[in-house]
Design brief:
The protein has 207 residues and is an alpha/beta fold. The protein is built from six helices and 13 strands. The chain has a single domain, classed as Class I glutamine amidotransferase (GATase) domain (Rossmann fold, 3-Layer(aba) Sandwich), CATH 3.40.50. The strands form three sheets. Strands 2-1-3-4-13-12-11 form a seven-stranded mixed sheet. The chain has a four-stranded mixed sheet with strand order 6-5-7-10. A two-stranded antiparallel sheet has the order 8-9. Strand 1, helix 1 and strand 2 form a beta-alpha-beta unit. The chain is globular and about 45 Å long.
Length: 207
């Protein structure tokens, strides 16, 4: 059973539907006990970083999610969910910023979330883009996947970068560290390539 974390900001139905399509049982939940007992965890996300962290705190999910990531069970963050797994983000209003200029995240993976620099391209990036420099075991070089975002992840350790893509700059499209996976794109909206990624993630829960 895969737990899809419900904190009020995510494509929960789309992720659940994609998992059902590949024959995987899942539950949408904000219950820490259900999350802890699941064989794998998916943290989806659509929206802004600071309100998302606020919701996770309000629902007492911060410590359970950090514990799950440290437990060894497969843990996947999608889009905003991937960004929340880092130490912090520039995506916030000035009244929310902490002393270092960012809002704190879960800190599961070292690194920070940055806004796309002005390159003349439209922000947010919306649409299909190619995975390059793939090292992650769930991904395939050259696959096209679907992105919608204005900020990107900058992992602190280059060895955690599982794949990159290019949009004005070359940036991290996915990170991977042991049982922990982050994807800036939406596998649940990425057609056959995305479904294949989710199948591989589900297989991780059975190893």
């Amino acid at each position: 059973m895969i737990a899809i974390v419900d904190y009020g900001m995510g494509n929960l139905g789309s992720v659940e539907k994609a998992l059902r399509y590949i024959g995987c049982d899942s539950v949408i939940t904000s219950d820490a006990k259900e999350i802890n007992s699941a064989s794998g965890v998916i943290l989806p996300g659509v929206g802004s970083f600071a309100p998302a962290m606020e919701e996770l705190n309000n629902r007492d999910l911060v410590t359970p999610l950090i514990d799950c990531a440290g437990s060894g069970k497969p843990f996947l963050g999608i889009c905003l969910g991937m960004q929340l797994m880092l130490e912090g983000s520039e995506e916030c209003s000035f009244d929310r910023r902490e002393s270092n200029g960012v809002v704190s995240g879960l800190g599961i993976i070292p690194g920070f979330v940055r806004r796309f620099p002005d390159s003349g391209l439209k922000v947010p990036q919306m649409g299909w883009n190619k995975l390059i420099g793939v090292k992650g075991r769930l991904l395939t070089e050259g696959d096209y996947v679907y992105f919608v975002h204005s900020y990107y992840c900058q992992p602190g350790n280059a060895e955690d970068i599982a794949a990159c893509t290019e949009y004005g700059i070359k940036y991290c499209a996915s990170f991977e560290h042991g049982n922990i996976f982050g994807m800036q794109f939406h596998p649940e909206k990425s057609g056959a390539a995305g479904l294949d990624i989710l199948r591989k993630f589900v297989l991780e829960t059975k190893i």
